[in-house]
Amino acid sequence: MTASRWSITNGRGTAARVVTVVGGVLALIEIGYLLLVTLGANQANGFFNFVKSMAEPLALFFPGLFTFVNKTWETIVNYGLAAVFWLVVAGIIARLVSS
After folding, report:
1. Are 51 and 57 contacting, i.e. CB atoms less than 8 angstroms apart?
2. 71, 69, 66, 70: which is closest to 43 by C-alpha?
3. The whole model's pTM is what?
4. pLDDT given for residue 15 in this prediction
5. Considering only CA atoms, which of 22, 49, 38 is closest in space to residue 73?
6. How far apart are CA 6 and CA 69, in angstroms?
7. Which of 10, 28, 34, 70 shows a CA-CA span of 20 to 30 A to 18?
8. Residue 14 confidence class, pLDDT cut points 50, 70, 90
9. How many helices (H) and strands (E) does the chain have?
10. Which of 30, 34, 20 lies closest to 83 in space, CA to CA?
């Protein structure tokens, strides 16, 4: 007799995975903008402006938190912190949902 591979769940694990994926997508948007700025993408490009328009509101209060002479480092630190923030918040919410 073989064991069944299907199990019945209460949906908490699924909800936690959805929260984790959403947090990961938000962090990827921040990282995408960070990479475009760091690698010197053409700021007049439509794709750059699209990613920028999504990343700036998601960065919340992080842009301008730290100021550097080098604007590239400023972008790396501030938007990198925003990406880490979204991963941490998603992890906390996922843990709360799954318990």
Report:
1. no
2. 71
3. 0.82
4. 86
5. 38
6. 57
7. 34
8. confident
9. 3, 0
10. 30
